[in-house]
Hints:
By secondary structure, the chain is α+β, with helices and mostly antiparallel strands. The chain has helices at 4-9, 11-32, 39-46, 50-62, 90-113, 129-134, 152-170, 179-182; strands at residues 37-38, 66-72, 79-85, 117-120, 126-128, 146-149. Helix content is 56%, strand content 15%. A hairpin with a 5-residue loop joins strand 4 and strand 5. The radius of gyration is 24 Å and the shape is elongated.
Amino acid sequence: xxxxxxxxxxxxxxxxxxxxxxxxxxxxxxxxxxxxxxxxxxxxxxxxxxxxxxxxxxxxxxxxxxxxxxxxxxxxxxxxxxxxxxxxxxxxxxxxxxxxxxxxxxxxxxxxxxxxxxxxxxxxxxxxxxxxxxxxxxxxxxxxxxxxxxxxxxxxxxxxxxxxxxxxxxxxxxxxxxxxxxx
Length: 183
């Protein structure tokens, strides 16, 4: 049976959570694993400040990977938030993030392919031709001379990364993330 713990054991998921939440976020997720609990309980268990725990929980909520139930404490009139994980959507979130990155890289590649660059020989400040020509091919930072810059390495790096992401998107996150199997 696939559980939340099994999902978190995946290196892809763990890397994703480390990127968006850091090590403290992984600890909060582990504390939430398989139960519904308040942010205050998590804070006390982990020894974290309540605002750190809440920041992590709201980030999970923003990705729709956690949800809460809000109840009002009748004695003091404050709201209490009871949290739980909703990990079945993590595959979709990871794929959406990769698609956004792919789109950004594709836009950068298009810009690199359609732009002629000039670079300062002193501080390696790189600018497009139109700005370089407006400045009489003088660096805006140091007034040094600007020379043609071959951006083929940048183009090749972007193309390699785009190919890698396309392969990942064509071969989605492993079956452990099948939401039907997680429930």
